[in-house]
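Margin note: ligand = phenylalanine.
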Amino acid sequence: MSETRGKFNSRLGFILAAAGSAVGLGNIWGFPTQATENGGAAFVLMYLILAFCLAYPAFMAELIIGRHGQANAVESLTKISRNEAQRKFAFVVGFGGILCAGLLMSFYAIVAGWMLAYTIEPITTLAGATEASTWLTSHGTERNLLFTLIFTGLTIFIISRGVEDGIERWSKRLMPALVLLLVSLTIYVLTLDGAMEGLKAYLIPDTSRLFDPDLIVNALGQAFFSLSLGTSVIIIYGSYVAKNENLVSLGASVTLIDVAIAFLAGLLIVPAMYVAQAQGVDIFKDGVLLSGDTLVLTVLPALFDTMGNVGILVSFAFFLLLSIASLTSSISMLEAPVSYIVERFGIVRNKATIIMGCIIFAVSCIIILNFSALFGFVISLTTEYGQPIIGMLCCIFVGWIWHRSSLLEELKSGNEGVEHSLFWKIWPWYTKLVCPVAIALVFINSL
Ligand code: PHE
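Resulting structure:
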């Protein structure tokens, strides 16, 4: 089977694809929103600590499971199991992750659809099609269905092309475009009136809030979501990495890119809110900063409106940025179930992609048609429960089930010198003891 399996063709290809999965709405929307909700810089600081101290080791656990197994999540976890009970456990964890990825995609595609609609809106405005513009930004059911369908279709198109021609090629195109757009927009916003006040709120921490339990829970959840953990996505991307690659540095590069882009997005969005305020847009409600969809879909467009014609361009660039970031993430979400049914049931990739894409779209439709009951529910089910629990179970697999010598051998593959590194000395016991306990504690605290 290994001959017919896809593989990332280059180191850069993997880094961009995995960073593409990691960098998404979570970074550009979620992180700045969470930062404004949780006391600005204090949240940023705690996020940085947790991303490197807990999420990175967990990321490495999933990556190494995949690279060792060279197969989808269920099979990769089964390969390191040594008895029947462990194999059953492997199925539950692997399949749970795949299910979580599919469910995540069903709500992610809806939000990404909004981003697509908002990308087109500046064009209809420029063309003078006022009615179309209003339709695109009014949150109607038809608009949601149509744009979720378009977004899911784009994801299906890329995934049906496979690993090299689909995931790797498109990540290589889209990721640099995303960074360029983000940096240009940030520089522009920082030159506007009011930006400096936002910068202060973002960068100077109120240390008294640092150990607020809610802040810690939110920061950990955000870090897990952002690094795509607990969804089997990193396991499957790991399985496309060649045995002669240095996993430790690959994982570190992806984590660094992900954290850097979240940080950069905060540098754009938080100052943008204060710029909006300087332009007369309301950014507080009952003394609290606006966040969530109000921030991205109301405050920022109101800011763009005050900029005249430049605003139309900026608005287009901003929502295009969010659409691109969503697409490189959704392709990884769809790859999780697709790789499973291709390998498990021998279905050809094209067919498997269409089947899974349609099932996920059907779930998105159910969510759209029962929006108030299901949207928030599916988000919290997957991101607050599914991801941390499955991420923790993957650490338990690596720490307690995988035979230690086989684990270390896998770690050495492509990286002989690792034996003399700090990573070698710390990571195995850290993943065995610290990660599961810390994740469990934070999780229990959140209940
Ligand atoms: N990490 C992505 C983001 O930040 C979301 C994601 C979660 C992607 C889980 C894949 C799997 O938007």
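Residues 11-446 form a domain with the Hydantoin permease fold (CATH 1.10.4160).
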